[in-house]
């Protein structure tokens, strides 16, 4: 049977871990003992311990030993659990046969399935128990007929007063839990949303089992987004399960912040956190906490980046900390310095208690954990805190541990925010400033370059589609999902490739059909240009024009909106010379990032340009002047010839002959 702890008891009896002694006899058999339950408080009522015996021969015996050397520190309690004492003073040392014969000091009753309930005789040992304040080692051994140990377990009986904590003491231990409700990226490269709801609900099972437990929960905003889209009823159930519990601050998808910082993409990290915060607040009605879980490669520069994303405290594992930091008991927050020397509060998981709770016997693990917490409360000089990951605790062990916590006024469940308010850890009177020991971040530079190009492509299409850019929302989300640490390189590339394909698809189908030669008869006229848009949406584009012998009065770059189908654009032109010319028209996206199509138009101009007209007039003037001068000269010559022909011979006066002898 399983006996719940009796209420109203004053003295806490706690059991802790056991280990199988590797004797030759133990190696030859499967006999074992497991703890099922025990009395947590020992007062005037006799204390009980319930164990299960399996695989033991009928002649086996159980030996119970309670040592009279009380343990006063948590570290000593752990040592006794790992290495049970075998000698020393004893408050009780008695044996019971499996059929229930205990003689004095105890009685034992047998139940089904190997259950044995042992009740300590209060008259015989009760007074001795109460007079030894502290944790009393209590060892149960399973012996064969030759006194060889087949199995053993070790526990503690804790004898302390359960007085209410005050400002000056005794002090309180606050226990905070975190939980991860994690699911892989739901958005697929083909734009489908696939959520494994069973995985989500299974991860949330501890929250369902303990609806009043203040567990600070980590859930990816992308998962909430996906459930809102594909499984709204499951989302409603999940939000009801979370029930207003605080949520750890995180990016939209899991992203390695340091890797992207090293790649020069800090804006990607800030954007992911901003989107994640918006999703959480929109779907849960409350913003997330300022607590962030650190990746193993996080360093001071990462802390600076996370502070920019709204982090006010961080959670770390022992593997991330230096030996100097680990030397301090993990019961108080400490400080980490970012790259600018600014301190941020850090909380460290209690790995010792995680180890305690990892015992294969969950009931034993739970009682052992309560023993450590109770002794910690006794030795604490101020209120302290313990941080645990609920996902690393067996469900049955968690139930038993919470029962023990609830039964003690000096043990209390709290949330992470309250833990961050505790006094900071001190070393030699100074605040502990811990050191991170980061691992090398993965190289995401290639993916970052691909994402940058794909993002530019989406921005280009957005300007083409404006204001109808909702069409691009799935592709923007696809790029955001591509940074997830859940994806290997090939899967991440598949997300980017899908966006690249979409950009190509949305920027195709724009062309300028070939046309016959166009004859222009006027110096200034309109040139018709046909453009075909095979997309189903209007597109904003720019038209670039170049040509020789032709000028474009409205400029060589025109902004157009192309309706689906054919669009005839009328382009004002001015010819600079007659004859043949070619106009080259290129269609580009706004800003010119993507060339969408191009074509040419051949033109024959019969019009005379302004310069040609001037030249022609000058030529005509010169020709006319030449013609007039030529006509006048010809006419003068003709007149002269006519006059000469009409004069009589007699009218001429002959010259006088020379006289002889004249000189």
Proportion of residues in helical segments: 25-40%
Radius of gyration: 48 Å
Strand content: 25-35%
What is the average per-residue confidence, as pLDDT, rounded to a whole number? 87
Distance between the termini: 183 Å
Class from secondary-structure proportions: alpha+beta
Strand order of the largest sheet: 1-9-8-4-5
Q: Largest sheet, if any?
A: 5 strands, antiparallel
Number of helices: 19
- Uncertain residue ranges: 1-27, 649-663
Can you walk me through this structure?
There is one protein chain. The model is unreliable at 1-27 and 649-663 (pLDDT under 50). The protein is α+β, with helices and mostly antiparallel strands. The protein is built from 19 helices and 28 strands. Strand 18 (426-427) and strand 19 (430-431) form a beta hairpin. The relative contact order is 0.09. The termini are far apart.
Topology:
Blueprint: E1 13-14, H1 24-27, E2 32-38, E3 48-54, E4 61-67, H2 74-82, E5 90-97, E6 106-110, E7 115-120, H3 122-130, E8 134-143, E9 149-159, E10 173-181, H4 197-203, H5 205-209, E11 215-219, H6 221-230, H7 232-242, H8 257-262, H9 266-284, E12 291-293, H10 300-308, E13 313-316, H11 323-326, E14 334-337, E15 343-348, H12 351-357, H13 362-379, E16 384-389, H14 395-406, E17 411-414, H15 416-419, E18 426-427, E19 430-431, H16 445-465, H17 473-481, H18 489-506, E20 510-511, E21 518-520, E22 524-533, E23 539-547, E24 550-551, E25 557-562, E26 565-575, E27 579-588, E28 595-605, H19 610-645
Parallel strand pairs: 10-11, 10-16, 10-17, 12-13, 13-15, 21-28
Antiparallel strand pairs: 1-9, 2-3, 3-7, 4-5, 4-8, 6-7, 8-9, 14-15, 18-19, 20-22, 22-26, 23-25, 23-27, 24-26, 27-28
């Amino acid at each position: 049977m399983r006996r719940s702890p009796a209420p109203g008891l004053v003295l806490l009896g706690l059991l802790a871990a056991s280990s199988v002694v590797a004797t030759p006899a133990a190696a030859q058999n499967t006999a074992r003992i497991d703890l099922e339950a025990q009395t947590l408080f020992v007062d005037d009522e006799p204390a009980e311990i319930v164990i299960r015996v399996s695989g033991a021969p009928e002649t086996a015996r159980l030996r119970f030993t309670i040592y009279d050397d009380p343990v006063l520190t948590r570290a000593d309690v752990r040592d006794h659990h790992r290495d049970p004492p075998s000698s020393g003073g004893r408050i009780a040392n008695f044996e019971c046969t499996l059929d229930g014969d205990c003689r004095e000091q105890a009685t034992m009753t047998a139940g089904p399935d190997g259950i044995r309930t042992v009740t300590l005789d209060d008259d015989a040992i009760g007074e001795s128990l109460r007079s030894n304040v502290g944790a009393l080692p209590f060892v149960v051994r399973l012996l064969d007929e030759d006194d060889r140990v087949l199995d053993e377990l070790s526990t503690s009986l804790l004898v302390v007063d359960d007085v209410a904590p005050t400002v000056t003491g005794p002090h309180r231990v606050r226990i905070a839990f975190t939980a991860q409700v994690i699911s892989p990226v739901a958005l697929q490269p083909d734009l489908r949303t696939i959520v494994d709801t069973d995985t989500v609900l299974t991860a949330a099972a501890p929250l369902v089992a303990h609806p009043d437990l203040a567990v600070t929960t980590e859930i990816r905003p992308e998962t909430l987004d996906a459930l809102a889209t594909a499984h709204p009823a499951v989302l409603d159930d999940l939000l009801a399960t979370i029930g207003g519990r605080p949520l750890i601050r995180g990016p939209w998808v899991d992203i390695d912040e340091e890797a992207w910082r090293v790649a020069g993409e800090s804006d990607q990290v800030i954007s992911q956190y901003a989107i994640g915060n918006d999703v959480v607040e929109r779907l849960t009605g409350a913003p997330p906490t300022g607590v962030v879980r650190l990746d193993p490669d996080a360093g001071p520069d990462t802390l600076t980046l996370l502070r920019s994303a709204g982090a006010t405290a961080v959670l770390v594992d022992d593997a991330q900390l230096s030996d100097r930091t680990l030397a301090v008991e993990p019961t108080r927050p400490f400080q980490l310095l970012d790259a600018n020397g600014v301190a941020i509060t850090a909380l460290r998981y209690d790995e010792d208690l995680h180890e305690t709770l990892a015992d294969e016997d969950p009931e034993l693990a739970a009682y052992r954990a309560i023993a450590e917490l109770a002794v910690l409360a006794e030795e604490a000089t101020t209120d302290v805190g313990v941080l645990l990951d609920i996902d690393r605790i067996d469900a049955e062990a968690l139930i038993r541990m919470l029962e023990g916590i609830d039964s003690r006024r000096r043990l209390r469940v709290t949330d992470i925010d309250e833990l961050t308010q505790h006094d900071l850890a001190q070393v030699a009177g100074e605040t502990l400033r811990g050191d991170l020991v980061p691992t090398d971040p993965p190289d995401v530079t290639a993916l970052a370059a691909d994402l940058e190009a794909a993002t530019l492509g989406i921005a280009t299409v957005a300007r083409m589609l404006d204001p109808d850019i909702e069409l691009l929302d799935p592709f923007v989300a696809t790029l955001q999902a591509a940074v997830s640490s859940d994806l290997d390189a090939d899967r991440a590339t598949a997300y980017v490739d899908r966006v690249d394909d979409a950009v190509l698809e949305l920027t195709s189908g724009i062309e300028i059909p070939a046309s016959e030669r166009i004859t222009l008869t006027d110096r200034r006229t309109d040139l018709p240009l046909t453009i075909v848009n095979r997309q189903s949406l209007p597109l904003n584009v720019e038209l670039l024009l170049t040509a020789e012998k032709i000028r474009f009065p409205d400029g060589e770059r025109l902004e157009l909106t192309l309706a689906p189908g054919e669009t005839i654009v009328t382009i004002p032109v001015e010819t600079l010379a007659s004859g043949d010319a070619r106009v080259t028209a290129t269609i580009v996206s706004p800003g010119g990032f993507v060339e969408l199509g191009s074509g040419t138009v051949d033109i024959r101009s019969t019009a005379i340009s302004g310069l040609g007209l001037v030249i022609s007039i000058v030529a005509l003037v010169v020709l006319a002047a030449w013609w007039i001068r030529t006509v006048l000269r010809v006419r003068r010559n003709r007149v002269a010839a006519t006059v000469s022909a009409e004069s009589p011979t007699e009218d001429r006066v002959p010259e006088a002959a020379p006289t002889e002898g004249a000189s």
